Amino acid sequence: MKVKRWIRSGELDPAMTTQEEIIEACGNILDHNCAYDLLGDVLIEGDDGKFYVVTVEAVISEANAEYVKDVLKEEEE
User: What is the distance between the alpha carbons of residues 28 and 21, in angstroms, rounded to a whole number?
Assistant: First the structure.
C-alpha cells in the first residue's frame, strides 16, 4: 500500500509514502517509548498445548467509515 494523502499524521512523518516506512517508524516509536515495559515479559500456555506471548504492535487496518466521515468533516471546518 502506498499513501495517497495524509489526513492526520499524529506522531508520524507525513513524508513517508509506503506501508513499510510507516510500520518501521511505528516500531521505532514503540521501542523509544519502551513498549515492552507496558506488559512486561508474558508467556502463557493455552489449553491447546501451544505457548503464546503477548505483544504491543502497530497494525495498519482499514478505517471505520463513520470515523473517516467524522474526521473529514472536522478537517473541513
Answer: 11
Identify each DSSP E strand in 1-77 by its residue range.
43-45, 51-53
| 47-67 confidence digits (pLDDT tens) | 999 999 999 999 999 999 999
CB 52 within 8 A of CB 43: yes
Amino acid identity of 39? L
Distance of alpha carbon 28 from the chain centroid: 11
Q: Which residues contact 59 (CB under 8 A, 6 or more apart)?
A: none
Read off the pTM: 0.78
Q: Residue 17 carries which side chain, given as an amino acid letter?
A: T
